């Protein structure tokens, strides 16, 4: 697994991913960690199969006791099935996740970590002196779903929105947006079920100042590519199941 700092100022954003040792047929995922004032938050910490690699890489940057919070955008196993193992090494941490999924997420194992349910309208999350915004993204693709916006770094963690499923050691950032749309099209048409929900999210996100949009799968969008993605996504009809779409 590789780790790379994607933002460094008064706080840091670190990306973990591109794991060449992940099991066959397991999709590649991006995990992100924010470090502020000696406290760390891990966004969508990943599946149980990559916990050992993920934990080893986290320890290159912070001590276990500095990881005070986890965030799970929704309930999928690639997001949070590692919870039971994190629960053993982070006995005093908190998990911020949609209220809707608490009864399901607890099936992954949770004896010590405290569940912090996020209300449907979202809210904020304090990490040291940094205040992060929890942005509703319901039905994209989960019926209870959130993204995280950092107004200082101008970074949006966008979960499955903007995702592309790619194999190999592909680049960190989108290089050719038009070519990249072909890696995203089917994923968004099939996994995003609601055009109404899609438009609501776009309207909300257009009001944010975003320099980096960081999905949980695939490459990061930066600068003008964020607007290009929003324009492309707005024009895309979603909720389509045909392989030929």
UniProtKB/TrEMBL annotation:
Pfam families: ODP
InterPro entries, alphabetized: Metallo-B-lactamas, ODP_dom, RibonucZ/Hydroxyglut_hydro
SUPFAM superfamilies: Metallo-hydrolase/oxidoreductase
Domain annotation Metallo-beta-lactamase: ranges: 28-217
Name of the protein: MBL fold metallo-hydrolase
Regions that span the bilayer: none
């Amino acid at each position: 697994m590789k780790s790379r700092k994607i933002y460094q100022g008064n706080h840091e954003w670190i990306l973990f991913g591109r794991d060449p040792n992940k099991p066959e047929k397991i999709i590649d995922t991006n995990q992100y960690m924010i470090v502020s004032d000696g406290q760390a938050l891990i966004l969508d910490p990943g599946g149980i199969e990559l916990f050992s690699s993920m934990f080893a890489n986290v320890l290159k940057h912070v001590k276990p006791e500095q990881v005070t919070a986890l965030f799970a955008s929704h309930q999928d196993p690639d997001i949070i099935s590692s919870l039971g193992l994190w629960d053993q090494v982070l006995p005093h941490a908190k998990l911020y996740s949609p209220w809707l999924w608490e009864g399901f997420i607890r099936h992954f194992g949770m004896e010590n970590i405290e569940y912090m349910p996020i209300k449907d309208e979202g809210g904020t999350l304090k990490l040291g002196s940094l205040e992060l915004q929890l942005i509703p993204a319901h039905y994209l693709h989960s019926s209870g779903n959130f993204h995280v916006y950092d107004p200082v770094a101008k970074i949006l963690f966008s979960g499955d929105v903007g995702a592309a499923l790619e194999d190999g050691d592909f680049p960190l950032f989108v290089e050719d947006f038009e070519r990249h749309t072909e890696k995203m099209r089917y994923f968004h048409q099939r996994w995003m079920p609601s055009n109404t929900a899609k438009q609501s999210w776009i309207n909300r996100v257009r009001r944010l100042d975003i320099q980096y949009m960081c999905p949980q799968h695939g490459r990061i969008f930066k600068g003008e590519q964020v607007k290009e993605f929003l324009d492309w996504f707005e024009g895309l009809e979603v909720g389509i199941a045909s392989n030929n779409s």
